Amino acid sequence: MHTVWKGAISFGLVHVPVKMFTATEDKDVHLRYIHKKCGTPISYTRSCPHCNEAAQWEEISRGYEYEKGRFVLFEEDELEAIKPENTRTIQILDFVDLTDIDPLYFEKPYYLSPDQAGSGAYNLLLEAMRQSGKIGIAKIAIRSKSSLAAIRPLENCICMETMHFPDEIRSLQQVPNLPSQTNVNERELSMARMLIDQLSTSFEPEKYTDDYRTALLDAIQRKVAGQDVVTVPAAERTNVIDLMAALQASLEAVKTTPTDAGPAAAAAAPAARGRAARTRASGAEDTAGGPKKPRAPRKRKTETAP
User: Fold this and answer.
1) Which of 14, 103, 158, 169 pairs as cysteine with 112 (C-beta 3.0–4.6 A)?
2) Do 1 and 22 touch, CB atoms closer than 8 A?
């Protein structure tokens, strides 16, 4: 597993050095947007609609829109100055019963393992929570985001689940059409309870599967097997500077070839000039003496098999 965070659990004066690992993984099948015309994946660029141009990272700051179209801007050093001080500490504030927490508060689970020489303190906290039946409520900052967290034992591991703050949970009063009173028919209620009893069993997570993901993966495999595949076109080379440099180097090499040919080329040059002179002289004689008589065809040598 990849370590996503390193720090320590703090409760009282005890510090437990730990490493953090993500307890879940994304199994979603991610489909990209493809240009139908050529089969190329669509790319998204950082651009300014006002200037109608791409924006570089050094030209970008961050801002909060407090009114429509009006922003207050922050530079990175300003954001760094207001970050929590203990960004490497999971500070346990209270110990509570797990049943006191509505699952609505839970957000994302992580595994915590002992780091370096912290196995003794790690085992101490793990066993103390197991025997007491309590879990810790802590504060932690991960990637500049501060959140609540529940620290609890899970077999031989300490598990941490980030939690929403109370003001992040929407009130039930905002949900429309909720019944003000639960008036039900007793006979229907009895049948509903019987149905629940018949469907009641122990929780076995292995029997629940993502049917959509399975169907989508099967569809992808069928398309690949049937060669219903779109190939991304090769990008055209537009590096004119390199092309010009290669042409220039080739021209320079051609220019230096005659002078670098050596004695063999120098010796062959007079012979070539002599052959050229004889050819010109023969042409002149043919012109002066009229057409030449045709020569008799040569007899081919016949090879006799031994």
Assistant:
1) 158
2) yes
Write the CB contacts of 230 (distance below 8 Å, at least 6 apart in sequence).
Answer: 34, 39
Q: What is the mean pLDDT of the chain?
A: 81
Q: What angle do CA 127, 132, 137 make, to 5 degrees?
A: 90
The CATH code of domain 3-23+83-169 reads 2.40.290.10
- The C-alpha atoms of residue 159 and residue 137 are separated, in whole angstroms, by 12
Distance CA 96, CA 240 (A): 69
Cα 280 to Cα 83: distance, rounded to the nearest angstrom:
93
Q: Residue 95 and residue 159: Cα distance in Å, rounded? A: 14
pLDDT (tens digit, 9 = 90+) per residue, 37-91? 988 999 888 999 999 999 998 999 999 999 999 999 998 889 888 877 667 899 9
Distance CA 131, CA 119 (A): 18
Q: What is the Cα–Cα distance from 11 to 126, expressed in whole angstroms?
A: 12
Segment holding 76, helix H or strand E? helix 76-81
Element housing 145 (H / E): strand 145-154
For residues 86 and 139, give the distance between their C-alpha atoms in angstroms, rounded to a whole number: 10
d(CA 197, CA 84) in angstroms, rounded, equals 49
Dump pLDDT digits (tens) for 27-37: 999 999 999 99
Other Cβ atoms less than 10 A from the Cβ of 305: the count is: 3
Q: Measured between alpha carbons, how far is residue 87 from residues 15, 140, 148 in Å?
A: 14, 7, 13
Q: Is 70 helix (H, G, I), strand (E, B) or coil?
A: strand
Q: Name which of 115-129, 162-176, 223-237, 248-262 the model is least confident about.
A: 248-262
Residue 157, burial from CB neighbour count under 10 angstroms (0-12, 13-18, 19+): middle
